[in-house]
Amino acid sequence: PETIVVSELANRMAERAADVIKSLMKMGMMVTANQTIDADTAELVIEEFGHRAVRVSDADVEQVIQTVEDKAEDLQARPPIVTIMGHVDHGKTSLLDLIRQANVVAGEAGGITQHIGAYQVTTESGALLSFLDTPGHAAFTSMRARGANVTDIVVLVVAADDAVMPQTVEAINHAKAAGVPMIVAINKIDKPTANPQKVRTDLLQHEVVVEAMSGDVQDVEVSAHTGQGIDQLLEAIALQAEILELRANPNRAALGAVIEAKLDVGRGPVATVLVQNGTLKQGDIFVVGEQWGKVRALINDKGERVTEAGPSVPVEVLGINGTPEAGDVLNVVETEAQAREIADYRIQAAKDKRAAAGAATTLQELMAKA
Ligand code: GDP
Ligand code: MG
């Protein structure tokens, strides 16, 4: 049920809370400034004060941000979004760094990579892949908990000199729960103590049957130190992406997920957004979580200014009125009024939720004391 706190209602009308309470009293309602009233009553009060009520509901928000399905003929292939997971010290960061560096052509103008939370690489066969720069399970699960599914493929890194460990099992469970296919990268194959076969048999116990064991999970032996197997790993990812037939509609209002955000001293709030559908363009008006804005500039993973970013492309977005949170969804809308209204609505909804949670705790505390 839609409700509003009396003081908040007064605030929004720029009226005194005492006057609103008086008006409610005339209607036969005895309330304090901190109590909530239902939307119908609020609407009567608003009219009483000569204002016009505009109700925003979840349904309105959904309508504004175009949750419409794309037509099949509008869909085009998009790059996969890849997350690297695995046990600590098995080589996730080393692999991510190696893959990124291998793609920077020495001496190339603008070839200096920027850490913006994600980057894109091109495989030898010409496939484009997007990598999330934050290995680790916390990011994966917290994003998913916030409703942002930003991973198409998980690369499970297992050190050949160590085999399956607790966080390896955790990663397997995350990938399975998310319904995301895995590719196993058996790393540190350069080490004299490497035993890739042990990794494969260990994985069997967790119902991960790799191709070398006649299963359907691709496995590739790699070394983040020598670079061995990296090209094969990238091609394995490209192949998996083809099987998944990932599609998006580049010709619609953009929808994306924030993968990291910060308040930059010089540039203001900056968010790295992974575009999931549509194309994000300079000048677009958007709402992102409880914030909104107008795209002032877009900067790609090479630190270059770009005018637009299509599906699966990570970009830094400038022009946000506040700092959003990782996992927040960005939606391009038509007008600033819509963007502001949705952001306001979300702020209020979050406040109400906290207030309700607070009230529940107080009640529990009271009952515990009794
Ligand atoms: P993470 O915790 O999974 O991110 O692992 P790191 O990338 O930080 O690697 C942990 C340690 O293993 C570091 O000392 C790396 O230099 C080393 N390492 C990573 N990959 C390899 C590899 O392929 N071969 C060898 N010999 N060492 C590696
Ligand atoms: Mg690391």
UniProtKB/TrEMBL annotation:
User: Where does it sit, as one GO cellular component term?
Assistant: cytosol
Name the positions where GTP binds.
86-93, 133-137, 187-190
The record's keywords, sorted A to Z, are: Cytoplasm, GTP-binding, Initiation factor, Nucleotide-binding, Protein biosynthesis
**How is this protein named in the record?**
Translation initiation factor IF-2
Tr-type G domain residues are 77-245
Where is the protein found, in the record's own terms?
Cytoplasm
Q: Name one GO molecular function term.
A: GTP binding
